Amino acid sequence: MDEIDQRKQWDSTYTSKADFFGQQPSDLGYRAVEIFKKNGCHRIVELGCGQGRDSMLFAREGFKVTALDYSESGICQIRERACKLCLDPNIECVVHDVRSGIPLPDASVDAIYSHMLFTMELWEKEISFILEECRRVLRPGGLNLYSVRNDHDPHFGKGPHKGEDMWQNPIGFVVHFFPEEKIRRLAKGYEIVHIREFDDPSPPFTKKLYEVLLKKA
Ligand SMILES: C[S@@+](CC[C@H](N)C(=O)[O-])C[C@H]1O[C@@H](n2cnc3c(N)ncnc32)[C@H](O)[C@@H]1O
User: Fold this and answer.
1) How many domains does the chain have?
2) CATH number of the domain where residue 75 is located
3) Using a 6 Å cutoff on CB, does residue 142 contact ligand 1?
4) Pairing with 121, which of 91, 114, 151, 173 sits 20 to 30 Å away (CA)?
5) What is the pLDDT of residues 88-128, one digit of tens each?
């Protein structure tokens, strides 16, 4: 697998298209706000934040957000928008590849959010390491809310196979699909609060995803 190519592809996609996933926050972002507020979360981290449609929502809602993505162009766009909207005190944006861990101290955050990051070109052993890193930086009782495309998705098993449950989609992104059993296997060390299937209609395709909510014991 050519990992550099995927990063370059995200960079050029974000450079050529402001709001690749649409101008509004995602439905999962709104659900996260509700869940995090109900559970008294203030300090959150978003992994694979893209162009920041959800990070900006979290900052507007008063959370303190650390937003990480390996696309420099995505991170620069978030910084500019946050500055224009005077939200910069609530959001720290960092260009960072999460395969090398999460650059934060142990037990320092209340919640972690990632919408369609684990469903990228990541091997299961890399996802397992990132989830372990999430557990390390979460405080006891902290939440990890993430989404992944599942094996009921129309693109599951289509296009060139890239290893494990990964296939390349028509616009060149490598997508990792998750049967429910894989999510359960990866939740080692967490309590599974729920796994819920939903449709995400945001562009460029309607996708079938699982929303996964994990809690650090
Ligand atoms: C499907 S997009 C979702 C973006 C954003 N969460 C949203 O829903 O608008 C996946 C994002 O993960 C980022 N990404 C993929 N692999 C990464 C890695 N190893 N480290 C950090 N970011 C990564 C990509 O740059 C891209 O922005």
Assistant:
1) 1
2) 3.40.50.150
3) no
4) 91
5) 999 999 999 999 999 999 999 999 999 999 999 999 999 99
Flag whether 195 is in a domain.
yes
Express each pLDDT in 35-81 by its tens digit.
Answer: 999 999 999 999 999 999 999 999 999 999 999 999 999 999 999 99
Does residue 53 line the site of ligand 1, with CB under 6 A? Answer: yes
Q: Which residues, 6+ apart, have CB-to-CB distance to 57 below 8 Å?
A: 25, 29, 30, 33
Q: Which range marks the domain in which residue 188 is found?
A: 3-15+26-216
Ligand 1 pocket test, candidate residues 2, 4, 10, most atoms within 8 A of CB: 10
Total-model pTM? 0.96
Q: How far apart are CA 146 and CA 50, in angstroms?
A: 14
- Indicate the burial class of 2 (C-beta count within 10 angstroms; 0-12, 13-18, 19 or more): exposed
